[in-house]
Design a protein that fits this description.
Layout: H1 4-22, E1 35-41, H2 48-61, E2 66-73, E3 78-93, E4 96-111, E5 114-128, E6 138-143, H3 157-186
Antiparallel strand pairs: 1-5, 2-3, 3-4, 4-5, 5-6
Helix pairs in contact: 1-3
């Protein structure tokens, strides 16, 4: 049994390296050292108010994350929301079952015929199953920019594996979210008379 554990950990490490190599160059820190993704959609039909209503509708209808709008102003053209995507990644690391959620912030700026969406990955929430003697989960929060692969100084292999794979799945989720956002704003409304 002692020989199997290092092999399992090494296998996870090579899997993590492979996953992260797939998204290499697709992310970077912004000028505030935040991990933020941005999309700008130009030439949208409708004015700022029309697109504001589409943004609010998109956030209200988002069913793969718990969302709360923190602030919005139709006249100034912005919406700020926080979200949690549950179960972004699950795995066994260091002989503990980990179930990761990712917390993120969305900021949308609106102008006539133009919208910018910025999604910032904020925190991971790791619900570890074997952390407490009573069987309840041990909950550990970690800032995304302080964990691997954003922070290359993480020393422990299981942390590189768990946070590396969680980062990979969080990255895919945010890109998917931004794609859904773009499609929701650019789709042509069907005439209800047909």
């Amino acid at each position: 049994m002692a020989c199997l554990i290092p092999l399992i950990l090494m296998g996870q490490n090579s899997k993590t390296k492979k996953l992260l190599s797939e998204i290499e160059g697709e992310w970077k820190l912004n000028e505030n050292d935040e991990l933020a993704y941005q999309i700008i959609i130009d030439s949208l039909p409708g004015n700022k108010e029309d697109n504001y209503l589409k943004v609010k509708s998109f956030l209200a209808d988002l069913n793969d994350a718990d969302m709360i709008v923190l602030d919005d102003n139709k006249e100034d053209g912005f919406v700020i929301a926080k979200g949690v995507h549950k179960d972004v990644f699950k795995g066994v690391f260091n002989m503990e079952w980990s179930n990761f959620d990712v917390m993120f912030t969305i900021k949308v700026n609106l102008k006539n015929h133009r919208v910018r969406m910025i999604c910032r990955l904020d925190k991971y929430v790791n619900n570890m199953s074997s952390g407490n003697l009573d069987g309840s989960a041990l909950i550990v929060e970690a800032n995304v920019v302080e964990e691997y692969p954003v922070n290359k100084d993480v020393r422990w292999g299981f942390q590189k594996n768990s946070y590396g794979q969680t980062f990979y799945h969080s990255h895919l989720y945010i890109n998917s979210l931004m794609g859904k956002f773009e499609r929701s704003l650019t789709k042509i409304q069907q005439d209800s008379d047909w």
